[in-house]
Each structure stands twice: as structure tokens, then as C-alpha cells.
Design brief:
about 80 residues; single chain
Length: about 80
């Protein structure tokens, strides 16, 4: 496998995903190198790091949706 490319498949059911519950991401060149270095430093697999980053991203989105929904609800009450 080419060391300059990392392709990750995370099969987390809660994430926005491809039909079979997998999410594919690939990092090339410098990103892959940085990922690998970070992973070594934290003794975590690159997959785990990405999974954490993604779940944070999903949490932010869900929070955004909640805020939007409550704001919309308040707006409709005002009328």
C-alpha cells in the first residue's frame, strides 16, 4: 500500500453515511503524513482520530439543528 495515502473506512452507525454504514475518507500527501504523525504521538490509530473528529462534527451539526428548530418554533409562536 502506498504510504502517502490513507483511506479510512469507519463503520459508525450514527454518522452520516454511505448505504452500508461505512464512511470513506482518504487523505493524501501532507495530510496523510500529519495524520500518521499525530496518530503515533497520541498512540491512536488514524481511524480513531478521524472517527473522533467526525463525531465532534456531527455533534456540532446536531446542536446547530436544535438551535435552528427552537428558533423556528419561537418565530412561529410570535405570529
Amino acid at each position: 500500500m502506498d504510504r502517502s495515502v490513507i483511506t479510512l473506512k469507519t463503520a459508525d452507525k450514527r454518522m452520516g453515511k454511505t448505504p452500508r454504514g461505512g464512511l470513506y475518507l482518504s487523505f493524501t500527501g501532507k495530510d496523510a503524513k500529519r495524520m500518521r504523525e499525530t496518530a503515533t504521538m497520541l498512540s491512536m490509530s488514524p481511524e480513531k482520530i478521524v472517527r473522533n473528529a467526525l463525531s465532534l462534527e456531527m455533534q456540532k451539526r446536531q446542536l446547530g439543528l436544535k438551535l435552528l428548530r427552537s428558533w423556528m418554533a419561537k418565530r412561529s409562536e410570535r405570529r
